[in-house]
Design brief:
The chain has 203 residues and is α+β, with helices and mostly antiparallel strands. It is 51% helix and 14% strand. The chain has seven helices and three strands. A three-stranded antiparallel β-sheet has the order 1-2-3.
């Protein structure tokens, strides 16, 4: 980074924008390495229990590597995989602990960014803007799929909240309802009366 600063100072054809891009690229790798280290430590510390029913997993095996795209770059994570006899499914508890259980390989931050830009502009433009501003390369098809996934997840959460509110006792449910009471709106308008002045002389 010091070399980049020295080169920037003596480069007559570079402005602050060039320095910002160079520093961001170099800092990006440091952030990616820190994210990879922390994610791996959390995966190693996750107990081999089913994230759905909580039962201990059987036939566990470690070292199942998978690469995930984060906002700082791609990171590999080695996870423990086991079989849940109650759910009758293979599980990777670390995926749930890291928020990666229902994703096509994108971190929660990337999923959030994809959903945000997709709601503000067409998918084709959103893909270019996302890469330009964050460095995350998300093809149009993947961006559209992640945005739809986040929308479906938000709808499912809304249904859960609605169901929870409906299940509440009547007094508590009434507190959540918006009460619309009859009211009267009064509009007051001030008016000015402008009288015509005397005719101009000579007319």
């Amino acid at each position: 980074m010091q070399a980049s600063i020295g080169g920037f100072v003596h480069a007559s054809d570079q402005n602050l924008g060039h320095l910002e891009s160079q520093v961001a690229q170099q800092a990006q790798e440091l952030l990616r390495q820190a994210t990879e280290t922390a994610a791996q430590q959390k995966a190693d510390a996750t107990p081999p229990r089913c994230p759905v029913c909580g039962q201990p997993l059987s036939r566990c095996s470690a070292g199942h590597a998978r690469t995930f795209q984060t906002r700082f770059g791609a990171i590999p994570v080695r996870r423990t995989r086991g079989y849940c006899k109650r759910c009758r499914k293979w599980r990777c508890p670390a995926d749930t602990a890291l928020g990666l259980e229902e994703t096509a390989g994108y971190s929660p931050a990337v999923q959030e960014m994809a959903a945000l830009v997709a709601t503000k502009m067409p998918v084709a433009e959103a893909s270019l803007v996302l890469e330009r501003l964050t460095g995350v390369k998300l093809p149009r098809a993947n961006l559209d799929r992640e945005a739809r996934r986040q929308g479906e997840r938000a709808q499912a959460l809304r249904r859960q909240l609605d169901a929870h509110a409906t299940a509440l006792p009547t007094p508590e449910r009434r507190q959540l309802e918006l009460r619309l009471e009859p009211y009267q709106m009064i509009l007051q308008i001030d008016a000015w009366t402008i009288a015509p002045g005397p005719p101009a002389a000579g007319r």
